[in-house]
UniProtKB/TrEMBL annotation:
Domain named Alanine dehydrogenase/pyridine nucleotide transhydrogenase N-terminal: residues: 4-137
Name this protein carries in UniProt: Alanine dehydrogenase
GO cellular component: plasma membrane
Coiled coil start-end: none
GO MF terms, alphabetically ordered: alanine dehydrogenase activity; nucleotide binding
EC id: 1.4.1.1
Domain Alanine dehydrogenase/pyridine nucleotide transhydrogenase NAD(H)-binding: 149-297
UniProt record similarity statement: Belongs to the AlaDH/PNT family.
Gene name tied to this protein: ald
Protein's organism: Flavobacterium crocinum
Gene3D superfamilies listed in its UniProt record: NAD(P)-binding Rossmann-like Domain (3.40.50.720)
Keywords carried by this UniProt record: NAD, Nucleotide-binding, Oxidoreductase
Amino acid sequence: MIIGVPKEIKNNENRVALTPAGVSEMKKHGHTVYVQATAGLGSGFADEEYAEAGAVVLPTIEDVYAIAEMIIKVKEPIASEYPLIKKDQLLFTYFHFASSEELTHAMLEKGAVCLAYETVEKTDRSLPLLVPMSEVAGRMAIQQGAKYLEKPLKGRGILLGGVPGVPPAKVLVLGGGIVGTQAAKMAAGLGAQVTIMDLSLPRLRQLDDIMPANVNTEMSNHYNITRAIKDADLIVGAVLIPGAKAPHLITRDMLKLMRPGTVVVDVAVDQGGCIETCTPTTHENPTFIIDDIVHYCVANMPGAVPYTSTLALTNATLPYAVQLANKGWEKACAENEELKKGLNVANGKILYKGVAEAWNLPFNEEIALANA
């Protein structure tokens, strides 16, 4: 198969979808890989390394899209890329369709095959291609939250871990999945007083067993959230419903209950956000203030630590990418239920229920897979 790796052009996105080691693996299976010039530079991989691994380096993004049967990316295509996408071209990347109606319609109209990292799902309901970036984002949420709590950045002016004689900051984490767990561990490690909420009692029991003494678990409901935000210094939104919009657990009216300078970090912003006032921001302009509350809503947080993020992501995606390249998407999805669940759009149809529901569009429960 002919594989293309374009340079990411979303604001301050420095990750790359395939490392030189990944190119070498693809070559071992007999595939041809084209990489756009400087695609890996932000992650620390020079064009020469890709060439040595067996890739052909092309000068422009147009060249890569034009020649590739399968495009491997990190972030969803943006508007300037839509015209480059060909009918039946396979795109393997994060899409988060439920947060962008424009992207959804664009991919339907282009007739692309869109296999989304975030909905590839194992039999135990885990999301193997979301986990590594969720781990990074959860840890980064605390780093960024701690920074924006500083007074020069309009925060409350509180040190996350406190000092002897001065109590630590209070951190509220909404969601006990991968993001929430990593955020709670990171905040606890810095000495904060942490509360983590989730809807699942079994999950809260697990968290109670593994978390240090400065982490408390609590059932997530409107009453408990409303009470907790009144004295929280940092709130991390870590709610995920795979492939669908996140529910708004904190509404605009609830901001008035918080103390001025409180920081909210909504890691779920690329799925619509679980804090109503959060809208996607960039690393260039990461925050905004509403009702004296600092909002950090960067939609590609792991892009700020691209070396770590690229290695973590490609460790997870490469085995699936190899299957797609070896068998073609139809046979690979017919034989691998995990990959099949990653199919969001194909043949001009929506194949993932959460996406269809988000935009009130027809949902096609099944697609005829060749070689099935």
